[in-house]
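Please fill in the sequence for the structure shown.

STRUCTURE ENCODING:
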């Protein structure tokens, strides 16, 4: 049985994950996906407040909620002056709209540095079959599993694939399906796949991206009836997609940082299983360039050197390091300057600020976990 404490810790983990991904997507200009992630962070934080209504932390949590809501409104206002974001699929129950983001992603193939193996899998399984299905007489994979550490680009890969083929993009959070709508989860799974098939039947490709898919189909020591029904429903829907007799451009891309929790029936239905590793030095350098655009950097900042010394850091780690460096100069400004003077500015961020940050902030992925990914990849990867 899950205790209140473990439930609280899990909600905090999920909220932090969504908020970090939202900030990263926001920085990269992926407006629609950033809105979805900010909203999910809000939903989870509100659940956490409801779990402990008298907690002294609720004031701080609600400050985060209001901050994310404010950013959501800003991004939505930007969208109103450009291309509008499509609404969730119609024809279902209202609560289904909170479960699925149906949007035109604004992530392009060239926006993703490195990850050549993952890109290759997407091209062979999704992009080329959509463009020339006649070249695939034996069919093509419709299930792709991305596994690896958090914050390494799995969501961006799926979004970029949707952009490449102008697909309708369904971005689903598996943990929300299981926790928020427990008891009706299998209905939501069926409805999700039905909507994706409807889109494909009308001549447009559909990509279902399921984040944290282990929350939906992972192995558990004990399962309640709703979880079993949901797992069986997912198997049924996947079997319908991988039927080689159907020329159906509906794809399922799952992402997980715990691939070892997937048992054989589910693993087998993802014909492509690709490790999305920690970013290499060249990719880290690109991230440093992206995250530094809005910051005031000192003349001694050497992005190439920073890329070298952040070996083992995920994309989320790199973003967090930038935020920590900026926080250092902001704290100094508030403590020693005149923060009420709107004309006053912080000093530039210097290399020493990053060195100080790296002394107290370490990579979020340890070497044992990296070895576990490599071992699972050696046994089950299907590129």
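FILLED IN BY: designer on duty
SEQUENCE:
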């Amino acid at each position: 049985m899950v205790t209140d404490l473990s439930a609280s810790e899990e909600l905090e983990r999920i909220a932090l994950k969504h908020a970090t991904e939202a900030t990263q997507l926001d920085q990269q200009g992926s407006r629609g996906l950033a809105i979805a992630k900010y909203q999910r962070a809000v939903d989870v934080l509100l659940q956490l407040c409801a779990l402990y209504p008298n907690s002294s932390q609720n004031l701080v949590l609600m400050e985060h909620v209001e901050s994310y809501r404010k950013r959501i409104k800003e991004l939505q206002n930007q969208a109103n002056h450009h291309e509008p974001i499509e609404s969730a699929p119609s024809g279902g129950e209202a609560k289904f709209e909170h479960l699925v983001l149906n949007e035109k992603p604004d992530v392009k193939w060239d926006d993703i540095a490195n990850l050549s193996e993952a890109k290759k899998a997407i091209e062979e399984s999704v992009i080329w079959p959509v463009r020339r299905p006649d070249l695939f007489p034996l069919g093509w994979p419709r299930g792709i599993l991305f596994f690896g550490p958090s914050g390494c680009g799995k969501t961006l890969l799926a979004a970029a694939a949707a952009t490449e083929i102008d697909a309708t993009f369904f971005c689903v959070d598996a943990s929300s399906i299981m926790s928020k709508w427990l008891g009706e989860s299998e209905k939501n799974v069926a409805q999700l796949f039905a909507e994706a098939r409807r889109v494909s039947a009308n001549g447009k490709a559909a990509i279902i991206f399921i984040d944290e898919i282990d929350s939906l189909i992972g192995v558990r020591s004990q399962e309640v009836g709703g979880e079993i029904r949901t797992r069986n429903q997912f198997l049924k829907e996947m079997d319908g997609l991988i039927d080689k007799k159907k020329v159906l451009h509906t794809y399922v891309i799952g992402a997980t940082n715990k691939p070892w929790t997937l048992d054989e029936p589910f693993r087998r239905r993802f014909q492509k299983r690709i490790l999305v590793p920690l970013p290499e030095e060249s990719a880290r350098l690109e991230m440093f360039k992206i995250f530094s655009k809005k910051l005031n950097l000192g003349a001694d900042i050497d992005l190439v050197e920073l890329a070298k010394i952040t070996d083992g850091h995920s994309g989320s780690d790199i973003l967090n390091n930038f935020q920590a460096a900026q926080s250092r100069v902001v704290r100094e400004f508030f403590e020693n300057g005149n923060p009420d003077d709107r004309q006053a500015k912080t000093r530039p961020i210097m290399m020493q600020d990053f060195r100080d940050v790296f002394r107290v902030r370490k990579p979020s992925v340890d070497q044992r976990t990296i070895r576990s990914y490599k071992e699972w990849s050696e046994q089950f990867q299907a590129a």
